[in-house]
Design goal:
Helices cover 41% and strands 17% of the residues. It has 322 residues and is α/β, with parallel strands linked by helices. The chain starts with a strand and ends with a helix. Belongs to the NAD(P)-dependent epimerase/dehydratase family. UDP-glucuronic acid decarboxylase subfamily.
Length: 322
Amino acid sequence: MRKALITGSAGFLGSHLASQLIHKGNQVIGIDNLSTGKMENIKPLIESGQFEFINSDITSSDVLTLDALTGIGEIYHLASPASPRFYQKDPFKTIAVNTIGTNYLLELARRNNAKIVYTSTSEAYGDPEVHPQHEEYHGNVNTWGPRACYDESKRLGEVYCYEYYHRYQLPVKVARIFNTYSAGLRNDDGRVISNFVMQALQQRDITVYGDGSQTRSFCYVDDTIQALLLMMESDKANGEIINIGNPIEYSILELANLVKKLTHSSCKITFRQLPKDDPRMRRPVIEKAKKLLGWEPKISLEEGLLRTITVYRSQIEKQKGG
């Protein structure tokens, strides 16, 4: 039985990842300060008997001396606010968790001879001038804007990973994750799919920012989690940055119309001003993931949206009944 640590374990990706690792028979320790994660996400995991939860902040050096983390073999570093609503609300903690926290987790991995996957982001490419985005592209990130606290701190986290790999030969792998979704997303986090689905189900106007021509690529959570597991397993991924996302691109207006269609909603689509530094286009090149991991996404946007809609609709009906 392997012993794995997940930071940000009470969040969207962290709780899904923990569930998969437990299903595969692993012992999992989760750390989260619950700033954006929710205890309800990990309650079933705790009840499994294979999951230990530590309510702690990885920006404290205490993480290096926790007895429970002795003998850790694998570290998945997922801790960080990922929604603009949350990372812009507390930019200094966002910067800290992706820099100071990443440094501590890399040092913990070094002391335990552990493998580590660092979850970076497609935001590392900023508002790209190269399309689609490949891992060698250095990006177009504005350091002087409302998204910089997340974009730039994630990029600096990658630098920490580079130094630990080259100085200490630490088996660290960097996943640049593109938009991931499912019903596990908080329905109040402000991200586009959760926003659109909730608005459509509640017969409220679907809010599109800008003219809706900006594009994104959406990857269902099961596919993203599978990629992270494969990255941890693969020695070929050591010292590599790998795009993890769906290479099929949709405009935001196409997404809005698809959500409206699948929810059978009579809501209207309204338009508001585009936020500052919102990327115009985003689509990953995933040839490296195919080559090194044998991975590519399997779940289509329509199938993933139908799964998401079913759960969100059930939640709404349950709230009405309560």
